[in-house]
Amino acid sequence: MDHHFTFPHELARLNKKLLYLSAMVEEKIRLATQLIASHDHDAAQSLINSDYEVDELEVEIEEDCLKILALHQPVAGDLRFIVTVIKINNEMERIADMAVNIAMRVDNISKFNHAAATSYDFAPMSAKVICMLQKSIDSLVNRDSVTAKTIFLDDDFVDNYRNKCYEDIKIRIKKDPEHPGYHINTYLLARHLERIADRAVNIAEEVVYLVEGTITRFN
Predict the structure, then answer these.
(1) Residue 13 three-state SS
(2) What's the chain's average pLDDT?
(3) Measured between alpha carbons, how far is residue 42 from residues 67, 75, 83, 120, 150 in Å?
(4) Which residues, in sequence order, are CB contacts of 41 under 8 Å at separation 6+?
């Protein structure tokens, strides 16, 4: 088959796989944030056990990228696209790992059986993190660097919420020193959510690179 005919199709197929992976990861994050409120053990185990789906697709996408690089030696915009796919592919796999970490953390919290504890409200933080991830995916789909850059500003809200959670948990531990593990695990949920937001920022940076050809690092 003609080289110039197959190359665009391979790029299109690669893009389709990356978008499928992105949708899969976004759904896992939605499920993970729901677990924080529900503490559903079966749902948590289902999320943990399904992690292989992301891992397998991530490896497949990376192998596809390497094959395209070896066979077609892309240049300019096509090369930039392949580099972007490799980086975002890795970010998506790491985000899925955070979903698993949240599920495991929720299971640990449930095992403490601390009936007197007041649950921490992660709903605003979770909503912002999901919004950031969704915007990063949308900016990738639409090749929209303007939307991608708005994610940088959203990150401040998540960082501030994480810091607030840290201070609140310190107070809770002082008032309830007999259950430090419960409170530390609660704080770690905030840390996992914050890491998801950081990786959404990383994806946004790669979208800016893909669209504008400039390397951007949010500080």
Answers:
(1) helix
(2) 90
(3) 39, 48, 38, 21, 36
(4) 107, 110
180's tokens = 């430090």
Concatenated DSSP letters of 153-211? HHHHHHHHHHHHHHHHHHHHHHH-TT-HHHHHHHHHHHHHHHHHHHHHHHHHHHHHHHH
- What does the pLDDT look like over 45-61, one tens digit per residue? 999 999 999 999 999 99
Cβ pair 84, 153 in contact under 8 A: no
Residue type, 78: D
Q: Which residue has the tokens 């593990």?
A: 181
Chain position carrying tokens 């800016």: 208
- Element holding 26 (H helix, E strand): helix 3-38
Confidence of residue 116 (pLDDT cuts 50, 70, 90): low
Q: State the CATH class of domain 3-212.
A: mainly alpha
Q: What is the pLDDT of residue 219?
A: 61
